[in-house]
C-alpha cells in the first residue's frame, strides 16, 4: 500500500496567497457591488513594455516557420539570454559571473523552492522572520524543519532571524550556526535594503562557518540608493558561498510570462562536489527549459529600448510606493520600506493582529493587503502593501484608508 | 558546514540526452563537412500550427495593454484551458474527469519528475525496462531506489518490468508488490501500445494491492488503433488508483513552447489524505503557472482549426514512422513500434551493443539515434529512432542506413 510524504501533512494551513485569494473571492461574491483594490500579492499590473511585445511577436513568427522553429531549449537556457544576463547584470557591475554559471528558469519562486533539493535533509536552514513563505514551506516538505509549534508558529529545526524595527529590518548574524541561509534583499516582505558593507559581513560569515547563502535578489531593480548592492557577487568571496536567485517578474512585469534565473558559481563546492554540477543535473533531469519565445522576451529586457521602457515602469511603481508611504504617514501609521523596494511595511493600528487588520481593511476600505503574520511570527502586528497596483487604484486605496 | 544531497552522487553518468548531445556536438566539431541528421531525442521539427500562432499573437497583444494584461495565473491553470481539456480529452471519451482535477504545468517531464515528491521515500517503485530515464533518476535523487549495481545497471530497490520482444513490449504484472507503478503508453522508448483490456488488468491490480499508477500518456495523439485507450480513465476504477500525465509537446509541437498537465482525481486517497490536495499544495508552493500566452496557445489546440491542423501534423510524423519502419525492414533490421507511437525500436545488428551501434550510425551514416541501453538493461541490443524529423531528413537518413 502506497504512503504519502507525511512531511506535507505537517504544513499548517495552505499557502498564504491561496488563503488570501479565497478570502477575497468569498468577500467579492458576497458583495458584488464593492470594488475591491488588490495591494496584497506582489503581482504587477502594467502591460509588458513595447520592446518586449515586439520581441514576443517576432519569436512567435519564428515558431510558425520550419526554418526558424525551436524545439527543446539548451539545458541552461539559450546563450543569447545568458550572455545578455552575464553582461548586464554581472560584468557591468564588476561581478565575475560567466554565462555558463547562469541557469535560466521559469521563475524565482520555482527555483527558490527547488534549490533546497541539492542539499542534505540534515542541513539546518536560517531564515529571516518575517520571510517569503516558500523558503520555509519547501523545507518542511523536504523534512528539514523538525516539529511545528502552533503556539509560537515556529519549527524546532529552523533558525529564525528576526527583522524588526529595532534592527531596521536587517537581521543579525544567528547565534546558532546554520548550513543554509536564505537572504532576500531588497526584502520581501518588509521592503528593507542591505548595504554592501552589511552584506559583506554575511558573506564573510558564510565562508567562515561553511554555510551557503541563498540570495534572492528578485527586487534588485527597485534599488534607488547607491550603497545598496544589486547582486551578492558585488561582495568579495561570494563565489565560494552564495547562490543568487533572480526574476524577470518585478523588473519587467513577467509574473504571467514566467522567466527567472539562478546563478551557481563553479567555485561553490562541498569538498570535491560542485553545487553547479548538482544543480545542472537537477535542471537537466527535472526541467525542460523556459519557452523560446519567453527567452527572447527576456533578451529584449536588456535591449536599449527595453532598458529605457522598464526604467519608466519601475519608476511608475516606485511613485506608487511613495503615494502609499506618504498617505499612510499622513493617516498616522508607522511605516517602513518603499525606498529600495516596492513593498511598504506598516504597523497595524492599536492592538489589531495582522489578520484582524486584513479583515478590517477588506471590509471597510475594500483594500487587500497581506497580513504580516503570514510571513512569520515577527510579522505579527504588521501588514504589507505593494506598489504594484495601478496609480489610480493606489491613490484610491489610500484615500479610502485615510477616511477610516 | 553544509552537506549535499548525496543521493545525487549515486547517479551514474549524466542525463542520457545530455550525453548524446555532447557526443554529437563533438562529432560535428571534428567533422564540420558532415550533415548530421538527428532522429535521437524526441524533439519535434514542424512549425507550430497556424491556429496556435494566431492565438499566440492575440495573447501577446493582450499582454501589451493594461486592460487585458495578465499577471500570476490561477494555481491550477486558467479555466478556459482546463475546461477545454476536460471536455476534449476526457468528457468526449467518456472519462469522468472534472476541470478541477486538472493541473496545468510547463510539461510532462517536470511533472513526471516532481510527482514522486508527494509520496513517502519508503515507497517502492516499479518501472518498465527499458524506460524514460526521468522516472528512475528522480527517484534516485529522492533516495527511493537503494544501491546501484553497475554490473547489471539496476537499483536494488526498484522493481523492473522487462518489456521485450517475447511479451510484445508490454510488461507483465510484477511478482513483488510495488507502491508506485510508472506506465507510459503509447510507450517511450519502445513504441508499443497497450489495449484497453490489458490496461484494465493493471488498474484492477493497482486497486487490489493499493498501488498508484503514474500513467504517462504524452503520446496518445499517435494512437491509430481502435482498442488502444487514450487515457487510463477509460478503464473502470482508474479514479481511485491513477494519476495521468499529459503533454502538448508531441500532439502540438510544444517541446520549445512548454505546456502539459497532470490529472489527479479527487477519489485518489491514502486513508483520509487526498493526493489531489497534496499535489495542489506542491503546485501552489513550488510552481507559479504556465505563461498566459502559452495557456492561450494550448486552448487553440482544441479549436476546430487547431484540431484539423494538428491531425495533419501527427499524420506527417506517422508517415515518417512508416518510412523508417519500412526502410529498416527492407535493410534487414528487426523492428517494433511505429504504429501507435512516433518511435521505432530496432534490434542492433549482429552482436553490437546499443552504444556501439550509436557510434557506428553517427560515424558511418551521420544519423543520431538513441541507444536502447540508455533506457535500462533490457534496452541493451536495441536502438530508438524517432519520427519527429522532417520528411526529407527522414528519407535521407534511411537511404544512408540502407547503404551501410
Describe the structure.
The structure is a homodimer of 404-residue chains. Chain A is an alpha/beta fold and 404 residues long. The first copy, chain A, has two domains: 7-46 and 305-403, Aspartate Aminotransferase, domain 1 (Alpha-Beta Complex); 53-303, Aspartate Aminotransferase, domain 2, CATH 3.40.640.10. The first copy, chain A, contains twelve helices and 17 strands. Chain A has helices at 7-10, 16-30, 50-63, 79-90, 108-114, 133-141, 196-209, 275-286, 292-301, 304-330, 354-364, 391-403; strands spanning 37-38, 102-105, 125-129, 148-149, 154-155, 158-162, 180-184, 212-216, 242-247, 260-263, 269-270, 273-274, 335-337, 343-347, 367-368, 370-371, 382-386. In chain A, the strands form five sheets. A seven-stranded mixed beta sheet of chain A has the order 2-10-9-8-7-3-6, sandwiched between helices. In chain A, strand 13 and strand 14 (343-347) form a beta hairpin. The longest helix of chain A is centred in the C-terminal third of the chain and has 27 residues, at 304-330. Chain A is globular, with a radius of gyration of 21 Å. The model of chain A has no long low-confidence stretch (mean pLDDT 96).
Structure, briefly:
The first copy, chain A, is 37% helix and 15% strand. The first copy, chain A, is of the alpha/beta class and 404 residues long. Chain A folds into two domains: 7-46 and 305-403, Aspartate Aminotransferase, domain 1 (Alpha-Beta Complex), CATH 3.90.1150.10; 53-303, Aspartate Aminotransferase, domain 2, CATH 3.40.640.
